[in-house]
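OP here, attaching both records as promised.
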Amino acid sequence: MSDELNQPQTMYGEHVEAVAEKLPCFYVVAPKKFAVLFFTTFGFYSLYWFYKNWSNYKLWTNENIKPIARAALSAFFAYNLFNKINKTLVSRNITYRWNHMLLGIRYAEFWFAAIAAEFYIYVLKPELFGYLLFPSLLTYFPLARAQKAINMACGQGAGEGNAKLSDVNMIWILLGVPVWAFSLFGIYATWAGLLVK
């Protein structure tokens, strides 16, 4: 098996080893930090997560990919990303028990199910607006498993290289607080009969 992810490739005619030594081939995040950012942003953090993974991978391999597009269309590229993560584990002789193929499929299923549920609420059941963003939280489960695999592949099983919340992370969390408050109020209003159907 090619060890393309064991050594950084060239980019724009220059060797990127000096950069890659400081940058893992995928996006390392501590599990607790990943969970906090994912849930406080109602899953929107996953867009950034996919972008960073594809961006790091592109830097290491110099593949002709577009990280932003693959992040935006994550349901179509999650399987591919998980497969590349698994190949990295195998090439580095790292044992991690996970079904990357099934998890890639599960992510896509959860992603499409969330879109359908949110469309249903928004268009047909607006009185349930408090639940609008909750379906997307299902995608956490396959992503959390993938994050553990990434950390193992990059030699940081606990994600110690990216465990602390940055100032930018805190801004994301603060922006998520009113969204959570609005959603919880919507749920309360629904159950209390404050909303007219």
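Record two, same layout:
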Amino acid sequence: MKRPSLAFKHFILIGALVLPTLASAHGMPPGPEACPPPLFGHAGQPPMPAFLRGLTLSEAQQDAVFDLFNGQAHGMRERKKVIDKAEKELRAMALSADFDDARAHALVEAAGIAMAQIKYMQVRTDHQLYTLLTPEQRQQLDAGTTRPPARPHADLPGQLAPRPAPR
């Protein structure tokens, strides 16, 4: 029995780490009503993180949130470019006669490192956003009162309505 190469194992590991993130990012149905509201009410602004929705931020807090997202935009873009380049090269390599195991391994590692850096940046930013909140806002967040109401599953395209309770 042939053993999978190390590059293949790394590729599977990266996929296992990334797919849940992508699934949660695309968990909302398409359409304008499904889009989260923009942070400051203007298109092109970063979206409000889910845990901040429902909180009323002061103007100073809004400015600090904008500065945080603006400050990390360049780093995020650079890491996403590394991931895109690696994925493009891996796709081309997979469908060619010139497969290079060492190069594939290096590409998978580079993409994995960039993905890990992006995740770290997101977690660090979430914490920085949390530190901007007042004690009252943190209490609201901890109590779970800031989240928008859940939509019933019947509203989602392709979803069946919940079954009625048996009588």
